[in-house]
From TrEMBL, chain A:
This protein's record includes keyword Lipid metabolism: no
Subcellular location field: Golgi apparatus membrane
Provenance organism: Taeniopygia guttata
Family: Belongs to the ERF4 family.
Protein name from the UniProt record: Golgin A7 family member B
Pfam families: Erf4 (PF10256)
Domain Golgin subfamily A member 7/ERF4, residue spans: 36-148
GO process annotations (BP): protein targeting to membrane
Lineage of producing organism: Eukaryota, Metazoa, Chordata, Craniata, Vertebrata
PANTHER family in UniProt: GOLGI AUTOANTIGEN, GOLGIN SUBFAMILY A, 7, GOLGIN SUBFAMILY A MEMBER 7B
Membrane topology: Lipid-anchor
Spans through the membrane: none
Segments of skewed composition (Low complexity): 157-169
Gene Ontology MF term list: enzyme binding
TrEMBL record, chain B:
Coiled coil: none
Gene symbol of the encoding locus: ZDHHC14
Annotated TM spans: 65-83, 95-112, 215-239, 259-283
GO cellular component, one term: endoplasmic reticulum
An example Gene Ontology biological process: protein targeting to membrane
Protein name: Palmitoyltransferase
Entry EC no(s): 2.3.1.225
Membrane topology: Multi-pass membrane protein
Compositionally biased region (Low complexity): 19-28
One Pfam family cited in the UniProt record for this chain: DHHC
Length: 178, 480
């Protein structure tokens, strides 16, 4: 049905599967195959850092370098959020002086960085991961424990183990709404 | 088919049928009702906490002692302002009630902040995460032992990490199904894993952890000042009065002062002592938990040192008190997305119906592409529920894990605010079947999925209800 490789999408880079997906397409045509979890790296203490080790399940789906860059950038963001320096001290002292009532109206530095992270992840999903049938989940939704990467098996692709006929019949079944 | 003569009962039947469908009667399927009233996450929070103001306020279950604290502070301060301040502001200076007022305001602000905020609770693992971890642990144990972990749960698992050159053991929490980050601990009173767990304080009615430690410290510090302040000026008041009218008359004239003096006298020792203790903890960057267990003391070994300390007292203090404040991870006021399917599928190889963030077409017809993850995760809900009480029993029998992960407690005579909980065991002792995570069909319990900012693009709004129902049906089937 939607098997055209040049299907609509905001990004044009072809994934390694040979088909291109947009995020909307992923929703319609792909089914979740498995999830990979990138765990935390505690070697630096309790600061939030994730392991940059490349999960073997992503071997065929995405280039190692892209993935590592994503994780390194995320680590950089978290380090920035938790940085103990002049501005964080100022914020802390000001908050203490107002008996922490200031938190009722002000957004903390950490929250601002988290918004940046969320935007970055969305951006990465649109540009890099969705076209490859992958999806990153913001670690904040997983208690900052893992970066969850959902791997979608492409129903439309003939390269995957699902046969072409089953994907089309399931597509038809879905549309029919049994 | 026309009812023909339209016998009475037939007509009645039709009429009643119509009315049944139009209203949401108990005959309607439960999840149709749920769909119309979206629940917030705090309503299905798995820990033993109380929530107020629609999820904005979070406290432990037992709050009786907190009310006592409030009453003591309010009454003593109230009496001070009402009975002692007028005399003192006249005789000495009006700055006294002013300073007292500021201190009181600070004490109340920090107390309420400590009691009402999230101490740093770690949300429980989503079923997928738990399954993934179980698989990893199972694999490593199979390799190590060469036996299969069939019916019984193997001994508690630990992971070792090296932090700043010091080996730290991360323990697996059976209740929350996660490996606890360093310095986290499971509070058995609240049944939550809390980051940088310090202790559970009944006086503030909440755990003290990463997110509210600075409020707690400011609270006891300011309360020490307030107590000493009130005590000093009450004594001054009585002395000044007795210089005029004699000691007994002075006491008769202001009986409130006696009460205040008594309360303050007994509080000063414990509060000031506690402030001193926590000042020491902050300057050495330890938690009460670590200090009690002696995790970083030299007695354990010459090479034992605290890997989290920054080296000097000033930096430690600044980091603890003025460092960045991390946000709450449990998203109490977020709405539960009704469709949060997991990877688990029936063992005959049907793929899952959609993902957390996106729903696929009816997956029943699609053969499972990778059977391994789904089978293990499908098995998980069953043994996960029934065998929890099993390992609990074995774990409470002096397993290595419980003592070291005992959240708070234990009697430390110097610390009056820690309840020596004799029934202290791992949190999952309380995990009776009725407290076990709700059936996967409900899914959302405790899992902070949904409300994904990144996933707005993949909103689930487009799915039809029939699909959702069949999805839910499949999930229930697989979990039964």
């Amino acid at each position: 049905m939607k098997a055209a490789p040049s299907a609509v999408g905001t990004s044009g880079t072809a994934g390694q599967g040979g088909t291109v997906h947009s995020l909307q397409e992923l929703r319609r045509s792909a089914s979740l195959a498995t999830k990979v979890f990138v765990q935390r790296d505690y070697s630096d203490g309790t600061t939030c850092q994730f392991q940059t080790k490349f999960p073997p399940e992503l071997e065929s789906r995405i280039e190692r370098q892209l993935f590592e860059e994503t994780v390194k950038t995320l680590n950089g963001f978290y380090a920035e959020a938790e940085k103990i320096g002049g501005s964080s001290y100022l914020e802390g002292c000001l908050a203490c002086a107002t008996a922490y009532f200031i938190f009722l109206c002000m957004e903390t530095h950490y929250e601002k960085v988290l918004k940046k992270i969320s935007k970055y992840i969305q951006d990465q999903n649109e540009k890099i991961y969705a076209p490859r049938g992958l999806l990153l989940t913001d670690p904040l939704e997983r208690g900052m424990r893992v970066i969850e990467i959902s791997i979608y098996e492409d129903r439309c692709s003939s390269g995957s183990s699902s046969s072409g006929s089953s994907s089309s019949s399931s597509g038809g079944g879905g549309a029919g709404g049994r | 088919m026309t009812p023909g003569g339209g016998s009475g009962p037939m007509k009645d039947c039709e009429y009643s049928q119509i009315s049944t469908h139009s209203s949401s009667s108990p005959m309607e399927s439960p999840h149709k009702k749920k769909k119309s009233v979206p629940k917030r996450k705090w309503e299905v929070f798995p820990g033993r906490n109380k929530f107020f103001c629609n999820g904005r306020i979070m406290m432990a279950r037992q709050t009786g002692v907190f009310y006592l604290t409030l009453v003591l502070i309010l009454v003593t301060s109230g009496l001070f302002f009402a009975f002692d301040c007028p005399y003192l502001s006249e005789k000495i200076t009006p700055a006294i009630p002013a300073i007292g007022g500021i201190l009181f305001f600070f004490v109340m602000g920090t107390l309420l902040r400590t009691s009402f905020s999230d101490p740093g609770v770690l949300p429980r693992a989503t079923p997928d995460e738990a399954a993934d971890l179980e698989r990893q642990i199972g694999n490593t144990e199979d390799i190590a032992n060469g036996c299969s972990s069939g019916g019984y749960r193997p001994p508690p698992r630990t992971k070792e990490v090296i932090i700043n050159g010091q080996t730290v053991k991360l323990k697996y929490c059976f209740t929350c199904k996660i490996f606890r980050p360093p310095r986290a601990s499971h509070c058995s009173l609240c049944d939550n894993c809390v980051e940088r767990f310090d202790h559970h304080c009944p006086w503030v009615g909440n755990c003290v952890g990463k997110r509210n430690y600075r409020f707690f410290y400011m609270f006891i510090l300011s309360l020490s000042f307030l107590t000493v302040f009130i005590f000093a000026f009450v004594i001054t008041h009585v002395i000044l009065r007795s210089q005029q009218t004699g000691f007994l008359n002075a006491l008769k004239d202001s009986p409130a002062s006696v009460l205040e003096a008594v309360v303050c006298f007994f509080s000063v020792w414990s509060i000031v002592g506690l402030s001193g203790f926590h000042t020491y903890l902050i300057s050495s960057n330890q938690t009460t938990n670590e200090d009690i267990k002696g995790s970083w003391s030299n007695k354990r070994g010459k090479e034992n040192y605290n890997p989290y300390s920054y080296g000097n007292i000033f930096t430690n203090c600044c980091a603890a008190l003025c460092g960045p404040l991390s946000p709450s991870l449990i998203d109490r006021r977020g709405f539960i997305q009704p469709d949060t399917p997991q990877l688990a599928g029936p063992s005959n190889g049907i793929t899952m119906y959609g993902a957390t963030q996106s729903q696929s077409n009816m997956a029943a017809a699609t053969p499972l592409l990778q059977s391994e993850p789904s089978i293990t995760s499908e098995e998980l809900p069953l043994p996960g529920k029934t065998s929890i009480s099993g390992p609990c029993a074995s774990l409470t029998l002096g397993q290595p894990t419980p003592p070291s992960s005992m959240p708070n407690l234990t009697s430390d005579s110097g610390l009056t605010d820690i309840i020596p909980l004799k029934e202290e065991h791992e949190g999952h002792q309380f995990l009776t079947p009725e407290e076990a995570p709700s059936p996967p069909g409900m899914l959302p319990s405790g899992s902070p999925i949904a409300h994904s900012r990144t996933m707005h693009v993949l909103s689930l709004a487009s799915q039809d209800s029939l699909h959702e129902d069949s999805v839910r049906g499949l999930v229930k089937l697989s979990s039964v």
